[in-house]
Queue: 2 jobs
Job 1
Amino acid sequence: MNFRVWGALGIAALVLAPLFAHLLRRRPPEEQPFAGTRLVPESPAITARRTALEDRSLFALRALAVLALAVLGATPLFRCARLSLARQSGASVALAIVLDDSLSMRAQLPGKKVTRFARAVEGAQELLGTMQPGDAVAIVLAGRPVRVALAATSNLDAVRQALDAVEPSDRGTDIDGAVRVASELIRGLEHVDKRVILLGDLEDEAGAKLTLADGVKVWAPLTELKGPLDDCGVIHADRNGSRITVRVACTRAAVESMRLFPAAGSRGASDTATPPAGSDRMEARSIGIFAGTEKLIGGPLHVDALGAELGFTLPDTALEKYASTQLYVVLSGGDALPEDDVAPIVSQSSSLHAAVVIDPSQDRVPTGGASLVEQAFHSLELGVQLAPMPTIPEQSEELSALALLIVDDPAGFTPAERGTLSTWVERGGVLFLALGRHASAAPLGSGFSPLLPALVRWRPSPVKGLSRRGDALFADAGDGLDDLAPAGRAVLELESGVTDVHTLARWEDDAPFVVERRLGRGVAVSMTLPLSSQESDFGLRPALFSMLERVVHEAQQRFGTGRTLVGAKWSMAATGNATARRLERGDQGQALAIDTVPTGREFVPGRAGLHELVQDGATTMRVAELDEREFRTVQVELPPEANEGSLGGTTAQVDFSPQVALFLLALLAAELAVRAAGRRLRRGGVPVADAPHAP
């Protein structure tokens, strides 16, 4: 508030005037009965009583009137900035609100006790206050992966409920993807005026540019949300025996302003690395390994880039004492986001285990060495422990430790193998079958059902490659798949009545190339080409990497203490009881919501950390980790019209003078009523102030 506001409010000091007026009023002397005075002639009393406050109800009304006058004088000067929408010739509009719910939005605004996310939600609610009948609103969440919180609707109550349900998360940011989705949501509406409203800090990956549909404008009104973020966070931490490796990421602002130095424990540095000579200051930040509240080892935090790996070695005493205790890595010293300063340490013994059953004679590599699948896993560095197996396990105990099983060109499965594999898949296993020549030559009694309820035949391929029409399975890795030079392909003849086998990719003649069937908590994926380079070029193309990443991702959702990014879906079986909890350090956490989907159940972690999933008494631990790309973001490039005044602005003045004036009229009416009542009492011989004491 400025000087004029305080000057107008200074009128309230005049409330002392009625007080002095009431105190200066002379009250009549109080009569005391005395028997002797009956014999003395009556004479006028000239002694005045001491000053006292009387007619308190009348005084209260007059004081309130003075205060109301002060408020009335200051009302036109009160200013409150609220977002408002400008309209073109008064026409209705279609809005797609892009609300950023990523990790960086959890930071507080400078000098305020409100987060960026809370201000963005408040801005969205202010815009809703300017909506009119006929307007349409959609809500898109920009945390990775992009989600549609509400499709375009004219029901503003539904929009408010959707906004109330949105919560901040630890996700990465995908502003570009969110804008694309938002513009598509409103592109087909009949409204002439279509706008995408960006409510976030506008931080995205380097090189990201906004892509808008034709006729859609973008507006970014909350410029106060932008600004550098001084933050470091723990991406993940692995433990292998006594050795702990921690991945730490920092924003550019943290690296520049905190004067961080070469990483301890990385590139051969020791755990007690010191700042380089000539440095004039070092931020008091440290990193430590904790068991509960006890610090086992630690030291100053030194990194010289956006990300670094730090190494620690646990002492032998701690290794024995806390062998079965969950350990955590903690950053201390304070930054913009304390939420990302703690992460659980995952033992590598509980990493994802996979096996590959492959005939070496059928998967010869011209240069020698490991098979194509093993080399692909080594190149991808997916954190999977892959082991070759000579045959399909027939005992459930052999499969219980596996999350993923890859089988290349099997000659069918025996009844015992099918039973074991089906049970394992239903409990959450992922099976990947690459079907080739041997699949059509299965011995009597062997087959693939129920994993793949189909008769498999090997035929020459009438086409050279795959269709790209509507196929997003391989994305950018699909280049060149229209010419795979196949020596042949597997042809699937599905059993009658089977409807739950879904085709993920097709040949050019529309025949299935990749199909999947979900059984219980798990999934069986089948491909109609073998992995051998002698049968096709598929094993030599990037599409193989994309395929392996997909099945590994499916396994990570379902099995063991695996790491996935915040926002990745974890699949669960549709039957039985299921609960999910996020385990805080030193706390058991609270139950979290599990969504029901047509294929079963899904749990989507919105916060980083250790999660416990319990289904039918079986407990599995999962870790949701931060997206390191969130620490490498830069300001997105907005089109020039993004800040045009014609799109909207702020309503700066709030005038409630009419309400104050009505209140003043009510006070005047009340005073007149009190004065009239007082006169009636005095005409009856009872002074108002002295009525309780009258003889």
Job 2
Amino acid sequence: MKRKFEAKQRIEKLRREIDKFRYEYHVLDKPEISDEVYDSLMRELRGLEEKYPELKSPDSPSQRIGGKPLAKFEKVRHAHRQWSLDDAFSFAELKAWEEKISRILYKSSAFLPPTLHRGSSKPSFKLEYCAEIKIDGLKVILTYKKGILAQAATRGDGIIGENVTEQIKTIQSIPLRLNKKMDATVVGEVWMKKSDLEKINKEREYENLPPFANSRNVAAGSIRQLNPKITAKRKLSSYIYDIDGIEEGFPETQMEELDLLKKLGFKVNEHHKLCKNLEEVEKFFRSWEGRRNKQEYGIDGVVVKVNRKKLQDTLGYTGKSPRWAVAYKFIPEKVTTVVEDIKVQVGRTGALTPVAHLQPVQVAGSTVSRATLHNEDEIKRFDIRVGDTIVIHKAGDVIPEVIEVLKNLRTGKERKFHMPTRCPICGGGVRRETIKTGKKGEESAAHYCQNKKCFAVEKENIIHFVSRKGFDIEGLGEKIVEQLMSEGLISNFADIFELEVGDLEPLERFAEKSADNLVKSIEKAKKIEFPKFLFALGIRHVGEETAVLISHNMEHLAHNMEHITHNKIKNLEDIIKNFPKISIDDWLKIKGIGEKSAKSLAEWFNNKENIELLKKMLKHGVKIIFPVLRVTSYELRDKSFVLTGELETMARDEAKEKIRELGGDISSSVSKNTDYVVVGKNPGSKYDKARELGVKILSEKEFFDMLKKMSIFPDKF
């Protein structure tokens, strides 16, 4: 017993000392001992814990690495909603944000007393801001119970994330035990040093593997490794910047919150500043614009937060973002490169899209070698030629986009591009479709392959069919689809349901387990809701909203058509029997269905080959579930709505659901049949179309006032 008691004391001392050294090295960046000494202490600790396993604890430094590989990541619901930030790209936009929040605070009773500018009768507020550099990493949410790390999760969709606790434990800058025994939920970014990325890429180059594009992608990929030991090898770091929940109550300011996070043992980025006004924020922002690339981590802007917590609480949230914070983003990086070739891709609808093949170039942290040129008219507008030197940037720091052609650098050897008259995949004829897009009858720029059996079209159709918004078949990605088509195992989406393990096992990339998993995924996908089923078929002009609209009007459709069998459509067999009987005029009876959609639907279901595909799916057990529409009242029955712009009071999907609960319909495009167009912030062309057609336009406030009168909203709206 004495030896065990002594071992316990020694273990506790070792843990304290090792954790102290860990904090100095990985949080303060001030190592006090050599790696050899640290490793020696860790070996002694592991030895004692192995000898006395009952003395092991989850917060021991020895438990950072050792979790077993996971079969898959568990989904977890966040205790606190994870928001995204609104963006500002100029000082003018930043000022507009300040004016908006000042108006909200002025109308509220929970604000600091207003002061009057000399010569002005309008009140203003002495707002202070906490400016923090915006780390370009992977967002993680850490939950501590009684001071011990209990769960780590990715952001996911803001409501549901993935449990990555074992992976996060391997990150030395994240404490397993807080300096205080308390419950807390904190938020931060996980990132990788650029110098470590260089080392990894050199190793990958030696092994003839493709290099990783940027440190953010590696960080995200490392956290999603099922085996924590792989994550540990990547040497990730972290910065924690926010508290979602805390047992002892929140500090009074954002600056004090960052200080508290430091005291609890977290690594907090030192580059944050209290700014007395937006001019000071702008100065801080400009100071980082030129030196952001000199840091070991990616920086894509400055996060500006109202400093006082009481004011944050008063301002609250929109449907997707906090009103009290904004991401002041750097202008996307621009670089020059050369157009080596222009090739054409063929999409799901047969549309031909020209793509520029570029001399590989680094832009905004990743290597770019392709950029879409959209269509022939876009190429003519820029006068882009093969051999041209062009300027590209990443639109939203994501999509490579051509913004300029440097014509003065031309040598005379550049070649003009011409859209092909034959499909580059199947050799079928190509036709440019003429579609009137406005009063002047402007012509659509789209070129289409006329061969309905084109390999590229079939491939894209199948990829669309199995996508998340369609049948959502896990494990059936683009490369696997192409492989199965090339091997002759599938030629259309109905063939998928005939696949068996024995068909897949002989193929490259497949072993017994992966073949079995794919077949199980296909079996699971056979039961599908009608809107997803209809969307998956890939009928032109029938997107998610149109599919939902048809689903909600199925009963109405059946009852108003004498040729529908039994006045009801309840399964795939009924669809096969009855949908070919539905004419264009019948489809148009559904409010919100336009002529293009009606024509496409009638043509698709009157195509015998398509009906044969549905029969094959029925034979192999595909079952359709018709969702029951939950209508709380019929006050908006037969009213068609189009939403455009950003809604601030709630998420757009939530607003759509409220309309449906009242019996209304949602459309994705404005027509003479549209009853209302709801206009949010930064509306698009749908707003102009509504004005042109004389459709009733509702501001966001008018829209929500309408819903309030119908008792669909809780009091807070």
